[in-house]
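Researcher: Here's my situation. A collaborator sent me these components and asked whether they could plausibly form a single complex. I don't have experimental data yet, so a predicted model of the whole assembly would be a useful starting point for our discussion.
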Amino acid sequence: MITQVIKIGWLRLWHGRFELLLVFVVPLVFFTIFALIFDKQLGSGKTKQIDAAVVDLDQSPVSQSFVKHLVDDAAIRRYAIEDNEAVGYDQLDAARDTVLRGDATVAVVIPEAWAKSLVSGKPAKVWLLADASDPIGPGVVEALVQKLTADSLAAQLPATEIADAPKQLPLVVETIDVLGQNKTSPVVSMYAAGIAVMFLLFSATGHAGSLIEERENQTLERLLCSQLGMGQLLVGKWAFLAILGVVQIVAMFAWAQLVFGVRVSDHLAGFAAMTAVTAAAAASLALVMATACRSRAQLNAVSVIAILTMSALGGSMVPRYLMSETMQNVGKLTFNAWAIDGYQKLFWRNLPVSAITTELAVLGVAAVVMLIAARVLARRWEVE
Amino acid sequence: MTAALCVDNLRKRLGSVQAVDGLSLVVEAGQLLALLGPNGAGKTTTIRCIMGRLRPDSGSVELLGKRLRGRSERRMLGFVPQEIGLYADLTTRENLTAFGRFHGLAGRELVRRVEWALVWTGLEDRATKLVGSFSGGMKRRVNIACGVLHSPKVLLLDEPTVGVDPQSRERIFEMIAELQSEGTAIVLTTHQLEEAEKRCERIVIVDHGKVVASGSLHDLLVATVGLEQTARITLDEPIAPHASFSTNGDPRVLSARMTSVAAELPPLLARVEKSGGDIRDVRVHAPNLQDVFLSLTGRELRE
């Protein structure tokens, strides 16, 4: 008797192709994705380089040599400051802005008379204007600057003085968090967006599955025999999913503001715009999946795989700055990455709505294109 | 008088199968027509063509004398699917309101028709209950009501009584009779031959996409198996053959066809007894739709 129960279990699993996929294939897919994210040797090619802007206020041969060594390091990719004509402290402002915009993770600022301070044996501190949302980049640059300063100091001091110098060079770098003062952790707003988007996708595909149920129990047949057209049906479902998505995201960020201090109310216009396009795109994606699938079981399997994959690559599970550059670029193919980037620009970088036009455009266009795709796919359920 | 629904020489090929092959039928206002046929005969394809869900390869469908082309011209058609095509997680009233709206009703008219439907189905006291919690018969009643809220002139009912108890079945046919009395032409597809025999004024039998017979039950009997009844006499032991009866396989079972049972059966029984036959059982079978169906299609009609 018991063996028959076991046998039935195996037979049902064997006949349910999508369940088999979920049980055996999905774990392997996810293992592969996370291996690609964290294994620097696989798929990625190399560790992500740190974008660093450099401002040399000293402009001495020593500081120029220091900058050359700094940007030649494999871990660093120099970010060219946009305002080429800026000099002196104007250049400093431009460098700070690149960090505020998120174009560079850190700006290395070599102060005036830095070379002279090395000769005197009391090196002035190099400033690092950093974005604390990346917990790795500023630390790596700080260590590199410390090492290069020690090298520069060694090159400037006579051999006798080097012998007399203390073994441990005092800290010659000062890191200034240009974004994080008086703010809640950047990870909070990132995860508010990441988790909201992931569950938005799950709930949207769950509700979009009603379309398949309606087809399976002939409700769709009777709906299409009424005055309701397929286009109206899809737009109605899309609007419902989008409104539901807006409510979900608003609830998530309201909680994030109340409990974790994310300043949503300071960016209401940007939040409204991002939320509208995010919910619209999620609704369209859910409808594409529902119209492409033949059965509820197939939709369940496809949506779980698609949503978890997008969430893993797009930064809903693991921050994208931890990923290699290749994986970060792959992540840009996902809906999650654009949504999270948009919200981060608003709530972490305090940028205006104009700074998220790319994210709004990408998600908005995706929403329209996917809705059209869903309409095309649904044609097979119409008049034959 | 203009027919409520007129289907003329309808043809539709689905893949390699000629699902409907020159099918024609006419339904008058207030008439209940049974569309019968074995599985795969083309009934559902015909209904889908009428409803505009399939585009016929040729032929025409006319509603109240007007040829149907677009969706808007089908406003006067009603359709009730075989499956319970309702939202199980909505209440009766919510379902009725939703489908009323989809059929173009709004405002007071919508409210009036929903109230009518609740009374018509006998479910006023269940108006706020979720349909998913209902018995099969109650679901069927709501299922039908959702298809007639817009007062269609022609109603297509696909197996409206599948899986319901006799009491609910009776209630459903009372509802259908009410619609008939209001002038609605009804096309009923069913596997219940007794139902078709008892309730429908006209019967159309379809096989291989064609109408193989149509008319009243009397017409069909005359055209196929005839009106004669068959008496079957079971004996304990076989007797010598006689011209007044025949045996079919088993020599102890005699059968004889007769126009008048009252006049012809007693002399037949007397003759059998006189021939030494010891009668164990006598049964008289009146020809019915099952015989007609079997005679025309060579198949039994089963659910």
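Model: Some features of this prediction you could bring to your collaborator: Chain A touches chain B at residues 214, 217-219, 221-229, 383-384 (CB under 8 Å). DSSP finds 16 helices and five strands in chain A.
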